[in-house]
Amino acid sequence: MSARTLAIQVLARVRATDAYLNVVLDSLLSETSSRDPRDTALVTELVYGTTRRQLSLDYAISRFADRKLDSMEDRVLVALRVGAYQLFHTRVPARAAVAETVQALKDLGVSRAAGFVNAILRKLAALPGPPLPPESEPAEHLSIRESHPRWLVERWIRHFGRERAEAMLVADNQTPPVVVRVNTAKVTREALLAQLREVGLEAQPTSVSPVGLTLPSVGRLEDVYGYAEGLWQVQDEAAQLVGVYASFPETARVLDACAAPGGKACHQAETHEVVATDLHANKLPKIEAEARRLGLTERLRAVAHDATLPLPEELGEFHAVLVDAPCSGLGTLRRHPELRYRRKEEDMGRLAALQRRILENCQEAVPPGGLLVYAVCTTEPQEGQDQVEMFLRSHPEWTAEPPVLPAVKLPLSQASLRTLPGPEGWDGFFAARLRRLY
Fold first, then answer.
1. Fold of the 178-234 domain
2. Of 266, 327, 362, 377, which residue is the catalytic one?
3. SS3 labels along the chain
4. Domain map of the chain by residue range?
5. What would the pLDDT profile of 31-72 be if each residue is shown by its tens digit?
6. CATH code, residues 3-125
7. Does the active-site annotation cover 258?
């Protein structure tokens, strides 16, 4: 099976089932584990690149298609997108991009559409570049050029200004670096950095997180030094900063109330006793498996629980609570590009209401003097700063209290942690550190 055939299969399945792109890709790649690493890299590039540029590709395809794109069979539309992506965004020669994409469609048993796809791709190949709306319509121009829905472009321009919004859109279409968090329960960052360099990996310390390393482009992460030994865990630098910012006292017993997939729970378990709860019981085995790999099972317990409901008494008392609330995920669009097309503007209000219920419930579990960190992986103020300000107005017994970390210069906005996609290379996160006074 060629790289293009597999890419079409992955994207067609994602379109048909609304599954997560990375899950489908990993599943299909694992079925062909003997594949040449260069093929795997090409499949990954085609799948993620095509998804990141989908609106722009569809805008170009629709200029020449004699039918609505939504009416096309999944594999046909996906093949057109994959072909157009190669033409506009890779160095693959146009003749090869067209011929091999059409052949991939034939290999999938869709020969009847080969002529249609071939004709459109040949017309696209004749263009000097991807067609775009006029720059006199800035929101529409940016929406198509950077493949983000227009409502989101307009929202970001309103919240962050044109220059920053454009930087965020551009950053979302970049391939994110491989960033790992050092498991400080086993090794220091300096020691792991030296070990990685000894085996030929030119890792670099992250710019702000004191426990992060950026790895060069690698193949299977499971084959990288330190994975099997549990010396590190994959986690974006911005997500690491949430754990650093929390700065829970060493003696604190910690509740992670919305723990899946478990990165922040494992981060806390390096130094604290942690109970990690999640609504979805089927996600707990992954948290437990990571805790085993990292050697943290004695300090981390995973339990199924709905964070909108009171905590079972048998879980005991907690001195600190981390609420990594379910959110729109708009800060992680470079890692999960399909989300940008699935999110709707009305989702913000629905998610904010859910977050409020979780926050109101979890604050009940914190004793006087205890801490609560509220975090979301989104750029959206309604889910972040606005949420916390509303909570503090209605709860005089709580106050915002940033940590005292003289050795770390965190990106703070007032007392809160705030990172945005952009030239800094971060995902978008918001976190507030709150202390219960009485």
1. Alpha-Beta Plaits (3.30.70)
2. 377
3. CCHHHHHHHHHHHHHHHCCCHHHHHHHHHHCCCCCCHHHHHHHHHHHHHHHHCHHHHHHHHCCCCCCCHHHCCHHHHHHHHHHHHHHHHCCCCHHHHHHHHHHHHHHCCCHHHHHHHHHHHHHHHCCCCCCCCCCCCHHHHHHHHCCCCHHHHHHHHHHHCHHHHHHHHHHHCCCCCEEEEECCCCCCHHHHHHHHHHCCCCCEECCCCCCEEEECCCCCHHHCCCCCCCCEEECCHHHHHHHHHHCCCCCCEEEECCCCCCHHHHHHHCCCEEEEEECCHHHHHHHHHHHHHHCCCCCEEEEECCCCCCCCHHHCCCCEEEEECCCCCCCCCCCCCCHHHHCCCCHHHHHHHHHHHHHHHHHCCCCCCCEEEEEECCCCCCCCHHHHHHHHHHCCCEEECCCCCCCCCCCEECCEEEECCCCCCCCCEEEEEEEECC
4. 3-125, 138-172, 178-234, 237-436
5. 876 678 888 999 999 999 999 999 999 999 999 999 999 999
6. 1.10.940.10
7. no
